[in-house]
Amino acid sequence: MSFHKIGLALYALFLTNFFGLKLRGARDTMDKKSLRLEYSKVLLNRLKIDIEVENIEKIPKDGQYLLLANHRGIIDPLVIEIALKDSSIFGSWVSKKELYNSPFFGLFVRNAGGILLDRERSQMSGFFSDIKRVVKESGHSIFIFPEGTRNKGEDDLLEFKEGARIIALKNRLPILPVYIKTHTDKVLGSSLNDKNIEQTITIEIGDLINYRQKGDLELLYRKTFSNLH
Predict the structure, then answer these.
(1) Run of H or E residues at 41
(2) Is the dihedral of CA 22, 190, 55, 69 positive or negative?
(3) Whole-model pTM above 0.90?
C-alpha cells in the first residue's frame, strides 16, 4: 500500500470519527444536516472529487420523501448530501448492521441519523416501526439504496428489494428518485491511486413518483432516467 493510500485512510478514519463525535452533540436536525454536509465536502475535497447535479431544479426545497438512489460505492451518501445542500430535506439513512458495528463508520452512522436494518432478524416489523416513528415523530425523510447492496458489476442497476415500496406506501411518502451516473467506486479507486487526479461525479435528479402509482418500483425508477433501460 502506498504512502498516499495510508495517509488518506488515516485521514478518513480521523475525520469520520471526529464528525461522529460532533454529530453526537448536535442539538437538532438542521445541525446534523449541516455537519453531514461539512463532512462530505471536506472528505471529497481532500479526494479532489467534484459533484455535478443534473436537473437540480427537481430537488424539492422542503418536505418529506423516500429518496431512492442506486449504489456503486461507499462515498455515495456523501454525493447525495452535497446534491441536497440547498434543500432543507433531512433524511435518515437506512443502514446495514455491518455499518453500525464498523470501527470505521460506526460512530458516525449511529449519530448521523440512521435506521438500523438487520436482515438476520426473523421479523422485520421492528424495522418498519422504526421507519414510521422517524417519519411521524421526527419529520424526517428516508434515504435508501433499494438494491440492498453495492453494485460492483457493470449492470446499470441490481434488482430492487421490496422494502422500499413498503416504506413509501406505509408512510405515504412521495418518492424522490436519484441516479448516480458515475461509477463512484472506480472514481474513489483512482483518487486513492493518484494524488494529483481531479474528477467529477455526475448525479441526476428524477421527477417525483407518487407513492400510489401502480407498477413495479424498479421499472418506474428506470423510466425516470433516459439512460436506464
Answers:
(1) helix 29-46
(2) negative
(3) yes
> Which residue, among 223, 39, 32, 50, has the nearest Cα to 111 in the 3D structure?
32
> Over the range 17-44, which residues count as b (16 or more CB within 10 Å of their CB) and which as e?
bebbebbeebeeeeebbebbeebbeebb
Q: Kindly indicate the confidence band of residue 122, based on its pLDDT and cuts at 50, 70 and 90.
A: low
Query: C-alpha cell of 33?
Result: 444536516
Q: Taking a C-beta distance cutoff of 8 angstroms, is the pair 112, 32 a contact?
A: yes
Q: And the C-alpha cell for 178?
A: 436519484
Cell, residue 4: 498516499
Q: Where are the domains of the chain?
A: 3-224
Angle 75-81-82 (CA atoms, 0-180°, nearest 5)? 95
pLDDT at residue 118 greater than cutoff 80: no
The string of DSSP codes covering 158-174 is PPPPTHHHHHHHHHTPP
What dihedral do alpha carbons 158, 99, 96, 217 form, nearest 10°?
Answer: -40
Q: d(Cα 112, Cα 150) in Å, to the nearest integer?
A: 21
Q: Which CATH class is domain 3-224?
A: alpha beta
- The DSSP result for 66-100, as a single string, is EEEE---STTHHHHHHHHTTTS---EEEEEEHHHH
